[in-house]
Amino acid sequence: MPGIRPHSKRLLDPTSSQRWLAYLDDHVNSLAWSPDGRWLAAASVSGPITIFSGSTGQVAHALAGHSFGTCELGWNAEGSLLASVGQDGKVKLWNPQTGEERFSLPGGGAWVEHLAWNPQSNLLATAAGRKLRLWDAAEGKLLREYPDHRSTIADIGWKPASNVLTSAAYGSLTFWSMDKDEPLERFEWKGSILTMAWSPDGKHIATGDQDATVHFWIFQSGEDLQMWGYPTKVRELSWNSTGRYLATGGSQTATVWDCSGKGPAGSKPIELEGHANLITALAFQHKGPLIATASSEGKVIFWNVERPRRPLVQADFGSGISQFSWSPDDQYVAIGTEGGLVTVCTPPRGK
Fold this sequence. Notes:
Elements: E1 5-6, E2 17-23, E3 28-33, E4 39-44, E5 49-53, E6 59-63, E7 70-75, E8 82-86, E9 90-94, E10 101-106, E11 114-117, E12 123-128, E13 131-136, E14 141-145, E15 153-158, E16 165-169, E17 172-176, E18 185-188, E19 193-198, E20 204-209, E21 214-218, E22 224-227, E23 237-239, E24 245-248, E25 254-258, E26 270-272, E27 279-284, E28 290-295, E29 299-304, E30 313-316, E31 321-326, E32 333-337, E33 341-346
């Protein structure tokens, strides 16, 4: 099939188990598991989207994706729709069972860079430049276009267990309802936000920033603090399932902050050292103590955050890691590289 070529070389450490491996034509810039783990969708920078069987790697559908490039992928809560956004200015909805393109919708800008599914419904939020739009994805219907942001939207997401939509842009985090144009609340901060992440309990929200800092808010009070000392801008954030630990990139070392009790202020973080180059991805498993860190030299390292002195497993993929994703049940991990590699393997046990 065009754009995919099989590869049999075993790349993982023997203590781990590789399930399957394939190649796309270009840098892998988005990976998304379906909610039941049946499918893994992968997009390349050049635009095509491939839906693989999560367990076998068999190609279910090769989708055209977006001309000029696909930016992001995401599944609705039922796994009945796959959404994609891209550099053609479109928001596209796909039927994963048939590979059919159900809708191609105008995103509001030349590039549509971000999407976020409401975890409780078929509401889909998308961001293009300064425009934030809300869709009924099942019907392909635009429900709301919020007032233009003051600068380009850097990230969007939903507050856990709520219908509060969050957008990050230069100078602020803004919180929106589904039925009003005016924001519910805004956290002001004079800085350039690159990424954001809610804690699973919705109590905290963190941002990774252009000025090599991490900003941290307590949502209920709006109280905030800042972590600094990173050697470069911070694009990587991940919370563990309990909301106790926040892992951050921005360095060759992954820094893990303990946010329990009075929070990370004045505390000494856990430092996961093992990469020679900058970290490009990190992710806690959905439940349990494991975290994976990945870097631009092509290495993936698994750690137990409760016993962080030594890594559990290290694996070298020969090309910078661009994407990393745990399957919904944590039984598999998917890895994408700058060289076009997509592979699924079994992670180590959390010992």
